């Protein structure tokens, strides 16, 4: 049986609309399924853990955005149950990385005919992330975006991605770079003025920004983009280039890779993991090789 977890409020109500379309397609095709609707933050994790008690689960398909996918993954990581996603959020970076169609019926067909494939994830402090984590500027942008009404307005016009950009431009004027120690696979790096550190398992974050263009979800490594020691103008220039992944050779931008990463600071660090926000003073990140089974659509399929 296929189990759907639908976040009705993802993409400002797009999740609910998409589900009503999918429901009739599923009935028409006589596909046996169960559906659960999320009722609030972290409910999707609870639902995923409950699903583990059900026998004969073929797959769990999320209808929602990266936040819902993140929550469901917390329950499924380390199990064999394959996870798929029909994009219904505002950012949809997971769906973008796996080239899942934005047309919900096509996405359903792609997922139902796909094969399970194990991908890497990362453990960060007590949780996991699937897409990536952002420390510093992007952690702060994610927090402000989640709290802001701009995202709701833009989602209504199907321009949810723009919310990150508008808030990033606003925060650019006030953000103060952070002093921190970064450790990658036992090597220590000290930075006085860090704008951001992105730790990525897939190339995208923030609704399609290609922050770590070469990140691969099955190479046993996490890609890092570190931006430090530049002024606001140069940071803005890198920010503009990040959409096409052209920022990597800009001054102040360093790209690295590693398996075990830790970040420590005397101040609290704004952090997001798959768009969900925290404020610790340190973070320890370890890659978890092939720990999540996903419904995998081979990349030669260009129908998205
Ligand atoms: N019924 C609900 N009411 C309010 N919030 C909910 C409900 N169900 C889930 N949530 C919360 O909604 C949040 C946002 O969901 P999600 O990330 O899937 O959509 P999005 O923010 O529109 O998309 P994206 O993350 O791709 O930008 C999740 O963090 C989840 O905890």
Give the topology, please.
Blueprint: E1 2-6, H1 14-28, E2 33-37, H2 43-51, E3 59-64, H3 66-76, E4 83-87, H4 93-97, H5 104-112, E5 115-124, E6 127-129, E7 132-136, H6 137-147, H7 150-156, H8 161-172, E8 178-184, E9 187-200, E10 222-228, H9 232-241, E11 253-258, E12 260-264, E13 271-273, E14 276-278, E15 282-296
Helix pairs in contact: 2-3, 6-8, 7-8
The protein binds adenosine-5'-triphosphate.
Adenosine-5'-triphosphate is lined by residues 7-11, 38-41, 43, 64-68, 71, 89-92, 275.
What does this structure look like?
The protein is of the alpha+beta class and 304 residues long. 29% of the residues lie in helices and 33% in strands. The strands form 2 sheets. Strands 5, 6, 7, 8, 9, 10, 11, 12, 13, 14 and 15 form an 11-stranded antiparallel β-sheet that branches. α2 runs parallel beside α3 and α7 packs antiparallel against α8. Residues 1-127 form the DAGKc domain. Pfam families: DAGK_cat, YegS_C. Belongs to the diacylglycerol/lipid kinase family.
Tags for this model:
304 residues; alpha+beta; Rossmann fold; Tumour Suppressor Smad4; eleven-stranded antiparallel sheet; 9 helices; disordered C terminus; binds adenosine-5'-triphosphate; nucleotide-binding; ATP-binding; ATP binding
In short:
Its cofactor is Mg(2+). This protein is an alpha+beta fold and 304 residues long. The chain has helices at 14-28, 43-51, 66-76, 93-97, 104-112, 137-147, 150-156, 161-172, 232-241, and strands at 2-6, 33-37, 59-64, 83-87, 115-124, 127-129, 132-136, 178-184, 187-200, 222-228, 253-258, 260-264, 271-273, 276-278, 282-296.
């Amino acid at each position: 049986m296929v189990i759907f977890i639908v976040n009705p409020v993802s993409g400002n109500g797009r999740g609910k609309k998409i589900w009503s379309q999918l429901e009739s397609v599923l009935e028409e095709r006589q596909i046996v399924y169960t559906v659960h609707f999320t009722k609030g933050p972290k409910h999707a994790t609870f639902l995923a853990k409950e699903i583990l008690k059900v026998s004969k689960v073929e797959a769990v398909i999320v209808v929602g955005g990266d936040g819902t996918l993140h929550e469901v993954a917390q329950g499924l990581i380390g199990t064999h149950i394959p996870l798929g996603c029909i994009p219904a959020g505002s950012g949809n970076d997971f769906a973008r990385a796996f080239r899942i169609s934005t047309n919900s019926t096509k996405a359903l067909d792609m997922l139902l005919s796909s094969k399970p494939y194990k991908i890497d994830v990362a453990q960060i402090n007590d949780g996991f992330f699937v897409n990536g984590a952002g420390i510093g500027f992007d952690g702060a942008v994610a927090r402000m975006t989640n709290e802001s009404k701009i995202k709701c307005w833009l989602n209504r016009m199907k321009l949810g991605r723009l919310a990150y950009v508008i808030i990033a431009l606003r925060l650019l004027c006030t953000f103060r770079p952070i002093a921190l120690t970064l450790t990658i696979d036992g090597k220590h790096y000290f930075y006085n003025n860090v704008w951001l550190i992105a730790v990525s398992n897939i190339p995208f974050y923030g609704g399609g920004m290609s922050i770590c263009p070469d990140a691969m979800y099955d190479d046993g490594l996490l890609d890092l983009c570190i931006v430090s020691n530049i002024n606001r103008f140069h940071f803005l220039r890198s920010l503009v280039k990040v959409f096409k992944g052209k920022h990597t050779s800009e001054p102040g931008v360093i790209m690295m890779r590693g398996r075990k990463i830790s970040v420590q600071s005397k101040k609290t660090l704004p952090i997001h993991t798959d768009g969900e926000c925290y404020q610790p003073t340190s973070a320890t990140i370890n890659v978890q090789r092939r720990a999540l089974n996903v419904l995998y659509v081979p990349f030669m399929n260009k129908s998205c």
